[in-house]
Write a structure and sequence with these properties.
Blueprint lengths: L3 E2 L2 E10 L2 E8 L5 E7 L6 H16 L9 E7 L2 E7 L4 E2 H8 L4 H20 L12 E4 L2 E4 L3 H7 L7 H4 L7 H4 L6 H17 L9 H9 L7 H4 L5 H10 L11 H17 L10 E2 L8 E9 L3 E8 L6 E6 L7 H14 L10 E7 L2 E7 L6 H8 L4 H20 L2 E2 L8 E4 L3 E4 L6 E2 L31 H16 L9 H10 L11 H10 L11 H16 L17
Antiparallel strand pairs: 1-2, 2-3, 3-4, 4-6, 5-6, 7-8, 8-9, 10-11, 11-12, 12-13, 13-15, 14-15, 16-19, 17-18
Length: 572
């Protein structure tokens, strides 16, 4: 192959996609790098391909927007068609998600706002893109580039109907296009929402495990995925806006690409405001007593009081989680004490089922804790995605949580807010108890949020709603509620609101599990959900042992009627 095309010197091949191969090149006349695309043309459709190519390049050259890949030049040489673009070598966003997992909400909102801005520019010129999907959004350190303008160019030229290859149906194609309707701005809005939803969930907009299955679900009129079920941390306003844009009918899609972009911008700004000064991506932290600094890689998630970042040592590859107090709570002495107490409560515990604290520190008046980084979802997210778990799997996870409780109870610590979202799942379904923000020593004075009870109602023991000191038994009740949810897909006392949930916990008898579930598990769940703390288990160790015994029985397929040996016997 020639090393020079026209006045462009080819430096290296970058990647290929279909009939196109991309190269890094240099403009010999001006000296700057460019992205050179070589299009291979099949002989039997050379004229048609040539007309399509130049139509697309003229269209791209007319669009002046930083987030739209623009054509700078075209060349015919060596039997190929070549286009020249600004040098940016972003990664297709679908590839990023499949490689690194769903994006953070802040990142998805930022990138989505850039796509919406590019679409709004096209719409203001009277054009539609027509093929918005994750693979046509390239992402690099500068942001996004919207590529693949063949369909847009043909539509702008008044060509309709389009050739099947140009139509390019995908799981992200608006439903009306499958009915033969011409794509519109509302179709682009659908594609934008579907793309953002994919970034957030790694799921197709209407479900499906494969591309073909996902397309068939669109054709069959399947509902859009439940974004809040898959990403419970998603702001409801953004979830509602995305859901509206994913409506099957174009006239039911509220707003425009520009208005959805406004919501995405606002979401990103709000989440970015959660980042305390000194914790921006790229900065280095030096925890107290450490000789090795940690570099912040980006925001990972947040809770009521803390925001979590991914971090890596300056000279290492191991990931850590850095949890910092949110800026709005920095001057709140009660919140600060609660945050620091989490680190103090578990820093001395080294157990495979309890989150490990690697260090603590303070940066610009903001306290933070360095913890192990857990690859995997939390149990709450897993249950939202999969629903009820197989009894053997549920029993094994519960057994691990039981061992974690045993470890913290031996240190005299009561968690007080054990719930599915506070149980992280490491590879192999190993549960890890986390978020000790409201934990307390069994011997300490009561510390609560002023005027409020502490905990999450659906998993709280009846005595937690009364003004009495909690005991280890409240964590056992919570584990019973979690185990019930793992087996049935819902908490045992789920009311329509917090007050009805509390009333059910205090007044209703423990619900029995369905008759088709193993009675050995049903017996343990019923015992853990007793109103009287003394009627649960006297020792967490005994509970953990019973759960392990039951898990082993179920995994071996030796389930029989009756209770597991020792399940009704407290032991010494």
């Amino acid at each position: 192959m020639a090393t020079r095309i026209h006045h462009y010197e080819i430096e290296e091949s970058l990647f290929s996609a279909g009939p196109s191969t991309f190269f890094r090149a240099r403009n010999e006349m001006l000296g700057h790098p460019v992205l050179l695309r070589r299009l291979t043309v099949e002989a039997d459709r050379a004229e048609d391909a040539r007309a399509t190519f130049f139509r697309e390049m003229r269209h791209a050259a007319a669009l002046h927007h930083p987030n739209i890949q623009r054509a700078l030049d075209v060349v015919e040489a060596e039997g190929f068609l070549w286009s020249v673009h600004e040098f940016r070598t972003g990664t297709p966003s679908d590839q990023r998600v499949r490689t690194t997992g769903p994006a953070t909400i802040a990142e998805a909102a930022r990138l989505g706002s850039e796509v919406s801005d590019a679409l709004a520019h096209m719409h203001s010129r009277g054009f539609v893109h027509g093929k918005v999907k994750p693979s046509v959004v390239l992402v690099d350190e500068q942001g996004i580039q919207l590529i693949n303008l063949v369909k847009s160019a043909d539509l702008a030229a008044g060509i309709w109907p389009l050739r099947p290859a140009v139509l390019g149906f995908s799981p992200f194609t608006a439903p009306e296009e499958f009915d033969g309707r011409r794509p519109t701005r509302e179709s682009d809005l659908y594609g934008l929402a579907a793309t953002v939803a994919f970034w957030l969930t790694n799921s197709y907009p209407r479900g499906g495990a494969t591309v073909d299955e996902a397309i068939e679900r669109v054709k069959a009129g399947a509902p859009a995925i439940d974004l809040l079920a898959l990403r419970p941390d998603l702001p409801k306003g953004l979830a509602d806006a995305l859901a509206a844009a994913l409506d099957r009918e174009p006239f039911q899609r509220h707003g425009s690409a520009a208005s959805l972009g406004t919501i995405l911008v606002e979401t990103h700004r709000r989440l970015a405001a959660e980042v305390p000064s000194g914790f921006e991506t790229g900065v280095h932290l030096l925890p107290t007593g450490s000789i090795e600094s940690l570099q912040i890689l980006g925001r990972h998630g947040s809770g009521a009081f803390g925001v979590v970042f991914r971090a890596r040592p300056r000279d290492g590859d191991e990931l850590y989680a850095v949890k910092a107090l949110k800026p709005e709570h920095r001057q709140d002495k009660d919140a600060r004490e609660r945050f620091l107490r989490e680190a103090r409560a578990i820093q001395g515990i080294d157990h495979r089922n309890v989150i490990k604290i690697r260090g603590v520190g303070e940066e610009g008046g903001t306290p933070y804790a360095v913890m192990e980084f857990i690859e995997g979802p939390d149990l709450g997210t897993l249950l939202l995605r999969e629903g009820a778990l197989a009894p053997a799997r549920a029993a094994r996870i519960a057994a691990g949580v039981g061992r974690g409780l045993e470890a913290i109870h031996l240190e005299g610590i009561i968690h007080r807010d054990l719930k599915p979202h506070n149980v992280l799942l490491a590879p192999g379904d190993r549960p890890i108890i986390a978020d000790f923000g409201v934990a307390r020593s069994a011997a300490s004075a009561r510390l609560t949020m002023t005027g409020h009870f502490v905990g999450t109602p659906a998993y709280m023991a009846p005595e937690q709603f009364d003004d009495v000191p909690p005991t280890f038994a409240v964590d056992l009740f919570a584990l019973g509620a979690i185990l019930h949810e793992m087996l049935t897909g819902r908490p045992p006392f789920a009311g329509k609101d917090a007050l009805s949930t509390i009333r059910a916990i205090k007044e209703s008898p423990p619900p029995r599990l369905p008759a088709d579930l193993p009675s050995i598990l049903s017996d343990i769940v019923t015992r853990l959900l007793q109103k009287d703390p003394a009627a649960r288990y006297a020792k967490t160790t005994t509970l953990a042992e019973d759960l392990e015994r039951v898990a082993a029985v179920l995994e071996a397929g030796r389930v029989a009627e009756g209770t597991a040996e020792g399940a009704a016997d407290e032991g010494a």
